[in-house]
Amino acid sequence: MDLTFPPKVTERAFARLSEIGAAEQGKALRVAVEGGGCSGFQYEITLDDVAEDDLVLEGAGEKVVVDAVSLPFLANAVIDFTEELIGARFVIDNPNASSSCGCGTSFSI
Q: Which residues are CB-contacts of 79 (< 8 A; sequence separation ≥ 6)?
């Protein structure tokens, strides 16, 4: 039996949201999945308002939201923040993705 859980947000991701003052601006980090990208689906990561049908993940006074359509694509995923030579960004470790591209924002299932 496969168990699916909502995505998990790391402390580092919540800390970055706190650094940029998302909650102070009344915003949440929205993680959505859209068709397109070089592998079939792509992540859309923005600061946005909380909508009525969103799953809200809270930590450190900050919020990360996922809409109902994107949620199945993000089951058991981990939303993190990383700082690398190519830049600092929010990243998603998604066990549902069978492949992804080099940019890290596009994937296939």
A: 7, 8, 9, 10, 13, 29, 31, 57, 64, 90, 91, 92
